[in-house]
Amino acid sequence: MSTGTWVACMLVIWVIASKSQGVVPEAAAVLSDANSTVFWLLVVSLVGLTVTGAIRLLYWRADTPPGELKTKRGALVVKHVAFLLIYGLGTLWAALTVFR
Question: Phi, psi at residue 23, to the nearest 5°?
Fold first, then answer.
């Protein structure tokens, strides 16, 4: 659910930013406030994703047979590096778009 919320927030930020070009200043201020609110929802979803991921990470060893720990650990590192890049760069883009 947190991932879906994060992606939805990214899409809303993109749509609002692209549609707010060239509007009257009053409308631009309202759209900017809306985008700011959506950004903070994105941050909350990112926190939720991190917390639930950390809980899952704490318990993955208990569910993994001892012979598979080394293989799963390598895959887990690759997955988390990819996720850090995706979520980190996406959130950075959103922040730069909203707070420019």
Answer: -90, 165
